[in-house]
Amino acid sequence: MQHAGPVAVDYDVTEADVVALHCRGVLRSPMFERAYRRHLRTGVIGGVLVAAMLAGTGYYTARTGMNPVNRAVLWAGIYVVVWSVYAFTTLRRSVFERRLRRSVEQSVRGGEVPITLGPARVELRPAEVFYSDRENKVGIEWSKVAKVEEEAGDLYITGTGGVVIRIPASAFPTDVERSEFRQEAEDLRRAAARATPAP
Fold first, then answer.
1. Nearest to 109 by CA among 194, 11, 18, 4
2. 20-54 tens-digit pLDDT
3. Which of 47, 164, 165, 172 places its Cα 20 to 30 Å from the Cα of 113?
């Protein structure tokens, strides 16, 4: 078999690498989607209820000679403006993601997530992709590799069982070497898929 690029890469796993891997996993999980929808629904329902309460208060506390409907609309209108600012700064998906990233980062740095920092190696072997560091050794057969992806220069090799091997962009001296490594991994995955009998 001819290799289009390097078959192994060495790098140091940093705290930032661990945070990035865990954040990616959480942000892609169905649990995140459910949590965000619940957060958004709660914010919208709460905003509607408070607006209704303020409108009612404005209506029933209108002084003699004041149009209670106009007063209620005014109070509700003021609240809608204030709530819109709140929604923009709190309910947007990007804001929710940033809060989640901070939470994951605190968990990693606080020791709540088991991590192994330091030297690591990823090898593209004929039968498997193999990851090793000072404490862990993980091999994923190519027939069980679901995806080989690149995001912001980082490579992700995902197994069908959910195991993800992340190789940071800094592991490769050049973009060409990263591209060749990714292509080699993708070629091995496709070759294994073709060789696997259909169920």
1. 18
2. 887 787 767 767 677 667 766 776 666 666 666 66
3. 172
Complete edge-to-edge strand list for the sheet that includes strand 137-141: 8-13, 118-124, 128-133, 137-141
Q: Which residues pair with 49 in a beta bridge?
A: none
152-183 residues labelled b (16+ CB within 10 A) or e (exposed): eebbbbbbeeeebbbbbeebbeeeeebebbbe
| Number of other residues whose CB lies within 10 A of the CB of residue 131 | 20
**pTM here?**
0.65
Domains of the chain (ranges; CATH) run 8-14+116-195 (2.30.29.30), 30-109 (no CATH)
Per DSSP, the residues of the chain read ---SS-SEEEEEE-HHHHHHHHHHHHHTSHHHHHHHHHHHHHHHHHHHHHHHHHHHHHHHTPPTTS-HHHHHHHHHHHHHHHHHHHHHHHTSHHHHHHHHHHHHHHHHHTT-S----EEEEEEE-SSEEEEEESS-EEEEEGGGEEEEEEETTEEEEEETTS-EEEE-GGGSSSHHHHHHHHHHHHHHHHHHHHHSPP-
